[in-house]
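Morning. Coffee machine broken again, so started the prediction first thing and wrote up yesterday's gels while waiting. Chain of 734 residues, entered below exactly as on the submission form.
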Amino acid sequence: MKKTYQRRRRTGALGLVCFAFALQLLAVSNAKADDGYRLWLRYDHLPANVSKDYRPRVTSFVVQGQSPTLDAVRVELSGGCERLLDSAIPFANRIDGDGALVVGTPSGSPLIDDLGWGRQLAALGPEGFRIRSVKLGGHNVTVIASQGEVGALYGAFYFLRLLQTEQPIDRLDVSQKPRLQIRVLDHWDNLDRSVERGYAGRSLWDWDALPGKVDPRLVDYARANASIGINGSVLNNVNANSKSLSAEYLQKTKAIADVFRPYGVRVYLSARFSAPMELGGLKTADPLDPEVAAWWKRKADEIYKLIPDFGGFLVKANSEGQPGPRTYNRDHVDGANMLAAALAPHNGVVIWRAFVYDAKPGYDRAAAAFDQLQPFDGKFAANVLLQVKNGAIDFQPREPFHPLFGAMPKTQLMLEVQITQEYLGQSNHLVFLAPLWREVLDSDTRVKGPGSTVSKVLDGSLFGQRLTGMAGVANTGTDRNWTGHPFGQANWYAFGRLAWNPDTPSRQIADEWVKMTLTREPKALAVVTRIMLESREAVVDYMTPLGLHHIMWGGHHYGPAPWENKFDRPDWNPVYYHKADLNGIGFDRTATGSNAVAQYSPEVRAVFSDPAATPEKYLLWFHHVPWDRKLRSGRTLWDELALHYQRGVDWVRATRKEWDALAGVIDPELHAAVKRKLEIQERDAVAWRDACLLYFQTFSKRPLPPGVEPPQKTLEEYKAKSILEIDSLNQSLR
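Came back before lunch.
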C-alpha cells in the first residue's frame, strides 16, 4: 500500500510539473510578445551563428532513478534544451554515443557511482554539484552529479544557465556548493491575499481554494527559486495571524509544501507569539509558563507530522505592536529558546527578527536593536538565528551596515534584505538592488582586523557559526510578470545568486539576467547592464543623498515628505531623522549626540566619528553638518546636496532616452512596459528633488546653485498631497 501511494505521489508531482511547463510553452507559442511571465527561464533558442563550443551537441539525457525531484530534472532539461537548441532530445537508460548528458546521484545512478566521485560530492554536500566533461564507456559525455537530488537539480539549472548566457561548455569542470545554508524568501502575505509592502498584485497563495485546488503557477514559482538556489519560503506575514497555525491552515500549508518539495523549497511560517492564547485558549503566552511551552511543543509535533521537512518559525516579537516575551517581562532569549526547544527534536529552526525598537524619549532608533540584543550574545539556543536587517533603520536606499554584524560573535546571525522596494519607488522605479546588498556584504566590521567583512560573518568563516542564512522580503504577486516592474525580477534573481554566493559581483548578476531575460545583443546588453548598475546610486541621489534617510511620506512610504511630523512616535516622523535647522542638517550619532557610533568596532568608530573621515555617502547619517561646510568637491554642503538631487533627475532622463533607443532590440511588450515605468520614475524624481530642496531651503536660506533647475511646484503644493494622490498615471499603472 505504501509503495502504491508513493508512486501516485510521484506521478502527481510530475503531472503538475508537466502541466505548468505546458502552460509556459502554450504561452510562448500563442503570445505575440513577452509578458514577462517566464522570468529568466525563457530558454529562447540560441542564434544560429553561435560557435560550436557554445552550441553543444546534446544527443540524449541519461537520468537514472525515480523521484519527483528527478522528474523535475527531466522536465527542465527536456523543455529547456529543446527550446534552446531547436531539437527534441530523447531520454535513454544508457550511454549510446557522444553527447549524452548524465545527471543524478551516486546512490541512484550506477553510471555516476562508477565514476568514484563519492568523496568530492560528499564535500559539496546534498545541495552542491559537480559538472564535468568526461569519457564514460569510451564516449564523450557531460556529467552533472550531486550527493543529493536537489543538488543535481541545481546543477541542471546551472547547465541551462550556461547555455542561455552563451558560455563555453565543451570542457566543463565546475564544482559548486552554497555558502549559506538557509536561503529564504519572506512573504509578507496575509490570509486575505493582501500583501504588506506588496506592489505586484495579490498573494500567490489562494488560501480559500487550498488545499483542494493548487494553482499550477506555484510550480513555476518553485522552479524559479530552485534555478537560483533559493531553498525556503516563509508563507505568511511577519505581522502574523494566529490562524496560520490552526489545523485548517496547516492542511493548506501542507498542500503548498507538497508542490515545493521536488524543487528543494521548504516552507516556513511566521508564528504569532500570542497564538497559545488565541488558538489554545491559554490565559498567557509567557514563554516561561510550562503550559505555554507544552502548547508550542504539541503544535510543532502537529506541523511535522503533516510536513516532515518544515523549516521552522520566523518571529517578529515586541516590535511595532506585536506581542512577544517582553510583554511578560521576559527577554528575547526566553522567547526564542522556548520556541527553539519545541522545534529542536524535528531539526527545525527559529529565525528571530532583530528589528526591535521601543518608543523611548530621546533615544536613537538606530541604536535600539543593538541595545536590546547584543547583551545576550552567546545565550541563544543552537537552532536560533537572529535575522538582522542590512542597516539599523529600515531598508533605506542607503544605510551603513548594521552594528550587530561583528558585535555578536557567539550568536548565529543571518542577513535580512528587502527585495520589494518599499522605500525605493516600489514597483514604479527601476532600481537594481545587487549593488546595495553588495555594499553591506563587503562592509568591513574590522572586529578581527582588516577583511572582517559582513559576508564572512554570515557564512561562518569569521566566527565559526554553525547555522548560516540570508532572507529577502519577497516582491512577487499575482501580476502576470510576477513583480510589477519587469526589472523587479532582476532583484529576485540577484537575491538568489547572492544568497548562494555572497561574493558574486553585481555586474555578473546583471549580465546573466539581461542575457536570459531581455537580450543577448552585445551593444544592447552593455547599455542595459550599465543602466542597472547605475540605477541604485541614481535613486539615492534623487531621494536621500549624502546620508539622509527615512524622509519618505508616512504610511505608504512612497515619495518625499521631509516636513512630516504628525505621528505620536517621534521615530515615525522624517523630521526626527534629518534634524534640519538654521545651522545645518543631519543626525549626530557621535559622542556629542546619541553616540550610536560606539556600537561599531574601534577602527570603524574612529572613521564614522570624524566628519572629515566619514565617507560622504554616510555623512548626514552620523553628523549634523553646517550648510556652508566645504566637502571634498570644494562645494558647500548645500550646493552638493542640491547637485546630487539634480544628478538623480538627469540620470532618469538620460535613461529614458537610452531605453527608447532599444525599441528594436528588446521585446516590444517588455519594452513598452518599462518605458511607461520610466516616465513615472522621472516624474517622481523631479518631485523628490523639488520637494526636498524647497523644504530644506527654508532652513539653509541659500539659493540653488547653477545647474539645478527651478522647482516645478511650490512647497505648499508638494505638502498638500503625496505623489500617489496627485499622479493619476501612477495610480493607473500601480
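The chain is about 40% helix and 10% strand. Going to sketch it on the whiteboard this afternoon.
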